């Protein structure tokens, strides 16, 4: 099911297009990361289109084409409900998280003329009484579109993590 | 070191000989069962490798003959293989030659296993079938004449399957699986595993920072459900007073926490008060479809969580289904391996519904996070504070199953059994 | 294992019963007091949880009633709360129910503490005030009738405050704080904590790779000051021959290293030679204002570093002020929690001056780095090399306080006391 | 006190300005990092203006508006004195450090027409006999100005670290 | 010997040249990293010229001018033979690796008019049954040339790692 | 804990007193020699610090007087210094004062060593030559009058060099180095170290996840060579039937695995079959020069790998030369420090050839990776699976040297010696 949505690029970009887009996508990822690093979680859904799909899943699932996600969201309502749970109902110890997004790759248009891109991410976690540890290493597989005001939005983000063994739990999306 | 004025349960030394249960009282649980290395060693021998049936795999993970899965009995690495249409083998992931843990892939399909170090070769049943140069080379070296391949096999486990779920035991004396489960647990088990063919939907893995027994207790503890899990009450998935039960076997080691969603339930002010903040007034889901239960089981319960001693949890939470496989990692941690599944023949929409509801559970689940954090906080308490004990007095006249959420009867029955087996 | 030709102090086994102090001689300190787990367990019981006053917080960290701080007595987690204008409580951060370390925020303000697991609720004094569903629900479950909230409280510590500094002890027998400090230490303490209201300027935290006692020794060891700290001599903050003293209490457990800056001091060639490279000739600060002492204390000393047994350091280094709170983390590490402060009413310029001089100390301080590295190098020695012992013979006829830098008298007096308490 | 200095951006940049500035700031951070990675510490003050302010402080201090820093420097003289201490007086075991600076964000002008920017940093440390470990994760909050020859200089850098529990000590600035 | 090959830049680039080149080199490094992250090892030699030199060596060797490498390859044939060994003969447990390449620095032309550049790399490793750990932190010291079709190729890559103590072994090039 | 039905070798407690070798049979090796902390402590005392010559450095690493190297005897940190044209000293890297591991640089050149903490100063031979302020300052403090510098030196090791290789022993009773090596090992040693001056080409370091003895066994185990190392057979560097030998000393602790490359060797179908996949048919090197042996040694062997008990490997693999220095890091790990070298006077081409062939060995070597992984897999087996034992029965009538690859005789001889020394 996921495979369908994450339609692969069919049309490559020119170098100029890649340059322009990479800049925009890097800005997007920087703001996205800062929002999560600041735990400004209620802003997080605004990075996505209304009909967006978002998933966090282990590389072992992705490689086998298995559909589950630690987080599996489709449509704005589900994004809002996750934010509400984090803000209001979920119980967890305070923590700092920090995102490092590198290796942004602008892949091309898919057959719906949407922008396919990817990037490597590294997230480190600090609990209040302990040293900073690697929380998750993975890759974003993205499809971006422009919204009505010309801003990039994620229509699709698959966060595929190498770190099979999640350390305790994952409170925030990545 | 002997007991002192602060330590009165032998835990100064943490050696099993010195440890003693406080006042022999089941409503008090000493910290040391969660922190002692010696205890874990004995648990390995008497529980996981003792007279227990351990979960090792789902048949659906091994579709063809020759398929294997790297798995664990307790923390002992084993290999599970399909060796026939309805035949499975479970044997230790340890080469009979020098001891290499030779199978390194999470899963795969093979004709035989070749240990990389000296290419001793095992067939898919785990039998040693070749020792290279056993007769030497050009008349020199090789094994003694009397060397018998048959005497050098990885340890085999006995296997028992039920409706697609594979269990293993090392002991010859373990009773048959169905008897081991007991009729109460079997009934709940058979709701999920009714014989319908399973379809694996994916895996999660997380390392919890707590002793493995805390996970069992957590699910045998209905008291926490509507308190810790603010989500449950707030979105009216489960509230005190709602229809629910803790269903135990006679021995007291297994249990099923069952509840039936009741959309008409009312939460009065008294209850809100009693719950000390565990209910957030006035919240509603944006996606109302999310908690919808699509009827598919022959059961009065919409949710059942079964703990099957010693290493399996069966999750039926509305329509999100999965098993959880517990692997102890020292006294202070456990690895949880989750296999999420549906059924062959599920519509695409149903699969999607299962995926959606998957947000409830797992390492990032709306309920899952709460439990993982609570278990860590508990273990932190045991590790960091002065040696002490916990109190499990709720529902004092019962032991085992109960029909109220406000009970710790099922935890007590577990420890009655545990103390017998462990001789502590 | 018994002693061997290389190991002659019982440290082959590291079990406390086998360990023996070399020749009963205080001028020799065996490695095992820094490396044995058993020793640490006994230290927890007999020192931190014994007849000692432990630092837990500054009053200024808890401005209002209901403010709390997550803190430690030894390595035992506690909560410090303000419960009144001049009232503070210290109690174990452990739920009386199952043992959860329930307070997870570094600091905050609350009306009550609710343990997340089952919402047992404690007021700010640490008393259990609510157990949800204690009477059960709809007549089922709940606690036994005789269950008494009053019998299920986290352990309380006795509290004593002096001039804004909060101490705690578990023992009923600990003498009053002022007596515990002794007049010598109290005098120095009262210079910094004179009753002027403190203003917290911020926090540092670092994990040092050494046994917690090494930090005490370091500050009771005036000998290292002008040798290890090249900065001190080079920039003439402290040199042998300068006015200085080690001021001890009678028991020998506390000490204050005091010195008076003397800008006129001359460093002769002999001294340069004796110091084996610890003085770099010809260097000057670019920012001369940096080491300026702004007079503000009624004291002949410009620098005092007080070690207050077992877990507090009071730093008055020119105008940079702070406390350091020691939390042992196993035998091989300690966490140091620093709270830097000034006084309410400090001018902005004065605060800035304190911030500037803050570069001297702390995890990145011109002096701080030296000590942290030295302590790590020591612990590396104990862990890696053959079991051995240290030599503390300087100033051989003294024990306790002394007026020369070339002395280890104060380390010896500490270990006389330590051996008594520890019975080793 | 610090809050005043770190005056927030009041005027956003256009995309073109951001593109031009991000390139320059990334080059700046790369050279800054290389200088520290090479332990070429005497070059380090040259990245700052004469009146610059530099601080390294824990997120817990920043979040509460507390002024302390592990390192707290104002004005060239203090920078030079720290360099002198590292080079001449401080005692420490040899170590390698490596900086990874990502997520550079060009925020805008503040009211003094100075450039506000930030970036995430990750520093890993290697002691001679041990494996490489995370040393510090944090965020740079920066104010840049141009010097007389048109080069970017830091007028203000607040290094706010998540890694509350410093591993042993911090010898070099970050 | 290595020192000769890694000829230092003698001619600096203009800002425009650096901007253009950094974009290209970042794209190159992203694709290079993705190839290794995907363990698409047979594609790896194609990032190099036919006569390329590649080495992975500890900072302690580099700093002393010592020639050894964990991997030491010169010429396409040697690259192909390493690929063949990894694919066919070497025995190792499955693992995931992920590259984070940051701080790309375009240094200038050397005296052969080849492009000198460098970058910091961080590689994290995940074994199937364990958490994600830092595998190697280091710096690429590179010389790029254009091939006949105008694509950048590495003529020289020295991977100099801080992480003196390799964790168990290094199966893949970095 | 006593033995149980699963554990029959005392390894329930892992304390050395309880451990017993299975049936006293050398062809069975119990897991606990690789996993017990107590065993490692005894190994340190009886082996590394006992009557053994330990590798510490190559003379070529210390070109001038005053050059030093931070090194290890077992896991005990030592400093190796050149103190004269042909004089070297080895002494513990531990300050005689308080125990600081004072030398922190991997290597360097000094006139003297100054301990950073209090600047006690040692000359390059390791003798204490200065204690700052020993006589006190201005008549106060300082050491007791009878304090004798000569009694406060780091422990000295006896040193013996042969042809550029420096060994150290702590025991006065260790026989002379040449005798210790024995004529067989000495002969092989002298091929590489013939007196030609060495040129260091660089260093590798890796931490292997296995007990240090597994590395010795690996190289005393010719059986694995053509099986684990698919590369060797596939590219015809070594195949069963080829000329090879395991050359042991009389004591059985050292060994040299020797083989002679034979480009004409044919690999028949039978052999391919026997090797269970360890030969990949039809592969050829693209760079054929890679495996070329440039004759340079007076030896019938093109490859010799000598294990010199307890901490040295001498690698002569075609033209890539190096030593490997073993440093145990707890029972479950070892650090391997590699020094690769050639000879002074090597042509640039020859150096390049050595560098090229360096791809065979080391932490990323075509053969090196295989061994590192196998050793980890073994230790994983010992740690994770049920306590058990390995089987070393190949070539049953021999012990020590042998001329077939299909032999474990040399492992058995090692453990005969080991059990004697360890008294287990
Ligand atoms: S260890 Fe498995 S074949 Fe030798
Ligand atoms: S553990 Fe605290 S309320 Fe149950
Ligand atoms: S510890 Fe070395 S001089 Fe004091
Ligand atoms: Fe729960
Ligand atoms: Fe000091
Ligand atoms: Fe080998």
Account of the 3D structure:
- The complex is a heterohexamer, with 3 copies of chain A (174 residues) and 3 copies of chain B (424 residues).
- With 174 residues, chain A is an alpha+beta fold.
- Chain A has helices at 2-5, 15-37, 59-64, 76-89, and strands spanning 48-58, 71-74, 95-109, 115-127, 133-146, 152-161, 166-167.
- Chain A has a 6-stranded mixed sheet with strand order 2-1-6-5-4-3.
- In chain A, a hairpin with a 5-residue loop joins strand 4 (115-127) and strand 5.
- Chain A is globular, with a radius of gyration of 16 Å.
- Chain A starts with a helix and ends in a 7-residue tail after the last strand.
- In chain A, 55% of the residues are buried.
- Chain B is built from 9 helices and 19 strands.
- In chain B, the strands form 4 sheets. A 7-stranded antiparallel sheet of chain B has the order 2-11-10-5-4-3-6, with no helix packed on it. A 7-stranded antiparallel sheet of chain B has the order 12-18-17-16-15-14-13, with helices on both faces.
- The model of chain B has no long low-confidence stretch (mean pLDDT 95).
- The chains are: A alpha+beta (174), B alpha+beta (424).
- Chains in contact: A-B, A-C, A-D, A-E, B-C, B-E, B-F, C-D, C-F, D-E, D-F, E-F.
- Chains E and F meet through strand 1, helix 3, strand 2, helix 4 and strand 7 of E and strand 12, helix 5, helix 7 and helix 8 of F.
- Bound molecules: FE2/S2 (inorganic) cluster (3 copies) and fe (iii) ion (3 copies).
- One fe (iii) ion binds next to loops of chain C.
Instruction: Tell me the fraction of residues in β-strands of chain B, as a range.
Output: 25-35%
Largest sheet of chain A, in brief, is: 6 strands, mixed
Q: What structural class do you assign from the helix and strand content of chain A?
A: alpha+beta
User: What coarse outline of chain B follows from CA principal-axis ratios?
Assistant: globular
Instruction: Find the count of extended strands of chain B (DSSP E, 2+ residues).
Output: 19
Number of helices of chain B: 9
User: Which segments of chain B are poorly predicted (pLDDT under 50) over 5 or more consecutive residues?
Assistant: none
Which small compounds were modeled alongside the protein? FE2/S2 (inorganic) cluster, fe (iii) ion
> How much helical structure, as a percent, in the residues of chain B?
10-25%
Give the % helix of chain A.
25-40%
**β-strand number of chain A:** 7
Specify the structural class of chain B.
Answer: alpha+beta
State the order of secondary-structure elements of chain A, H for helix, E for strand: HHEHEHEEEEE
Trace the largest sheet of chain A across and list its strands: 2-1-6-5-4-3
**What is the oligomer described by this structure?**
heterohexamer
Please work out how many helical segments of chain A DSSP would assign: 4
Global mean pLDDT of chain B: 95
Q: How far apart are the termini of chain A?
A: 21 Å
**Most residues in contact, chain pair and counts:** B-C, 45 and 42 residues
Q: From the alpha carbons, calculate the radius of gyration of chain A and give it in angstroms.
A: 16 Å
Largest sheet strand order of chain B: 2-11-10-5-4-3-6
């Amino acid at each position: 099911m996921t495979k369908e949505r994450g339609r692969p690029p069919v049309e490559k970009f020119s170098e100029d297009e890649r340059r322009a887009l990479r800049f925009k996508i890097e800005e997007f990822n920087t703001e996205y990361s800062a929002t999560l690093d600041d735990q400004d979680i209620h802003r997080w859904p605004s990075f996505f289109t209304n009909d967006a799909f978002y998933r966090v899943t282990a590389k072992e699932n992705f490689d086998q084409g298995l559909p589950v996600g630690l987080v599996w969201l489709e449509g704005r309502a589900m994004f809002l409900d996750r934010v509400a749970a984090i803000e209001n109902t979920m119980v967890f110890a305070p923590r700092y998280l920090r995102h490092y997004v590198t290796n942004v790759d602008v892949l091309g248009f898919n057959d719906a003329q949407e922008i396919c891109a990817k990037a490597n991410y590294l997230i480190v976690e600090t609990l209040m009484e302990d040293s900073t540890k690697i929380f998750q290493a993975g890759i974003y597989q993205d499809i971006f579109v422009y919204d009505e005001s010309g801003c990039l939005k994620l229509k699709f983000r698959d966060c595929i993590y190498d770190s099979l063994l999640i350390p305790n739990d994952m409170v925030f999306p990545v | 070191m002997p007991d002192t004025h602060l330590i009165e349960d032998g835990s100064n030394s943490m050696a099993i000989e010195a440890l003693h249960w406080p006042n022999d009282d089941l409503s008090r649980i000493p910290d040391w069962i969660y922190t002692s290395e010696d205890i874990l060693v004995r648990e390995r021998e008497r529980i996981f490798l003792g007279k227990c049936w351990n979960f090792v795999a789902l048949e659906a993970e091994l579709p063809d003959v020759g398929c294997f899965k790297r798995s664990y009995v307790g923390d002992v690495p084993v290999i599970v293989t399909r060796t026939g249409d309805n035949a499975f083998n479970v044997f230790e992931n340890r080469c009979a030659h020098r001891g290499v843990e030779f199978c390194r892939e999470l899963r795969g399909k093979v004709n035989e296993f070749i240990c990389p170090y000296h290419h001793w070769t095992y067939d898919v049943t785990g039998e040693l079938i070749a020792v290279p140069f056993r007769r030497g080379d050009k008349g020199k070296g090789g094994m003694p004449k009397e060397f018998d391949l048959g005497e050098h096999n990885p340890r085999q486990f006995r296997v028992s399957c039920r409706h697609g779920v594979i269990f293993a035991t090392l002991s010859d004396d373990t009773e048959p699986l169905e008897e081991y489960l007991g009729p109460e647990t079997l009934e709940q088990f058979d709701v999920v595993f009714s014989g319908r063919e399973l379809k694996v939907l994916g895996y999660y893995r997380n390392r919890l920072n707590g002793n493995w027994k805390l996970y069992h207790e957590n699910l045998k503890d209905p008291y926490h459900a509507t308190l810790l899990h603010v989500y449950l009450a707030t979105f009216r998935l489960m509230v005190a007073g709602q229809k629910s039960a803790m269903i135990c076997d006679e021995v007291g080691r297994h249990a099923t926490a069952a509840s039936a969603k009741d959309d008409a339930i009312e939460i009065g002010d008294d209850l809100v008060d009693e719950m000390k903040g565990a209910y957030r007034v006035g919240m509603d889901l944006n996606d109302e479809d999310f908690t919808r239960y699509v009827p598919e089981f022959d059961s009065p319960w919409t949710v059942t969580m079964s703990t099957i001693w010693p290493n399996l949890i069966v999750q039926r939470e509305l329509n999100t289904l999965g098993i959880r496989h517990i692997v102890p990692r020292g006294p202070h941690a456990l690895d949880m391996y989750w296999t999420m599944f549906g059924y062959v023949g599920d519509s695409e929409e149903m699969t999607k519904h299962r995926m959606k509801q998957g947000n409830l559970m797992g390492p990032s689940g709306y309920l899952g996070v709460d439990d993982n954090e609570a278990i860590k906080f508990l273990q932190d308490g045991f590790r960091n504070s002065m040696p002490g004990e916990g109190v499990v007095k709720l529902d004092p006249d019962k032991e085992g199953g109960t029909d109220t959420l406000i009970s710790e009867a099922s935890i007590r029955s577990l420890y009655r059994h545990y103390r017998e087996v462990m001789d502590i």
